[in-house]
C-alpha cells in the first residue's frame, strides 16, 4: 500500500481555513487544479456518502465519495471512485489543527492507495506535490501567507 503525506502551516485561524475547505463541493473555490465540481443527485455537500464529480483544468474527470466530515475535529475523509490515475482503494484525509501560537493553522493531507510497484513513486510524488502541496500553496496565498 502506498502512502502520501504532506503538511504545512497557514497564517490564519483554523476556523477561517476550515470555512474555506469544508465544502466537499468547493474545491474550485480554493484548489487551482480544479475547474468545476458538482455533487451528484442534488445531495448536500456535507452529507456523508455524497459523491462529487469534478474536472481538472487539464480535462481529467474524477469522482470521489465523502466518507467522513467533522466540524468539531476539522477533518474530511474521502475515497476516489473513478480516476484516470492507475490506482485503487484510495482513501484520503484533509485535517486542520489550530496552532495557538499566533493563531495559525496546521494543515495535513494524507492518503493511502494500492497501485503497481512501478507506478508508486510517480503517483506519490504527483499527489503529494501537485494535489496536496498545490492546495496548501493556494490556501497560503488566499490567507496572505
Describe this structure in words.
The protein has 145 residues and is of the alpha+beta class. It has one domain: Alpha-D-Glucose-1,6-Bisphosphate, Chain A, domain 4. Helix content is 23%, strand content 43%. It has 2 helices and 7 strands. The chain has helices at residues 14-21, 117-142; strands at 2-10, 34-39, 51-56, 61-70, 75-82, 88-99, 104-114. It has a 7-stranded antiparallel β-sheet with strand order 1-7-6-5-4-3-2. A hairpin with a 4-residue loop joins strand 4 and strand 5. The longest helix has 26 residues, at 117-142. It is globular, with a radius of gyration of 15 Å. The termini are far apart. The relative contact order is 0.25. The mean pLDDT is 96.
Low-confidence stretches: none
CATH superfamily: START domain
Radius of gyration using CA atoms only: 15 Å
Number of domains: 1
Tally of extended strands? 7
Mean pLDDT: 96
Summing up helix and strand content along with how strands pair, one would put the structural category as: alpha+beta
CATH topology: Alpha-D-Glucose-1,6-Bisphosphate, Chain A, domain 4
Pattern of helices and strands: EHEEEEEEH
Q: What fraction of residues sit in β-strands? A: 35-45%
CATH class descriptor: Alpha Beta
- How many strands, what sense, and barrel or not for the largest sheet? 7 strands, antiparallel
- The neighbouring-strand order within the major sheet is 1-7-6-5-4-3-2
**Based on the structure given, which CATH architecture is correct?**
2-Layer Sandwich
Write down the overall geometry.
Answer: globular
Distance between the termini: 34 Å
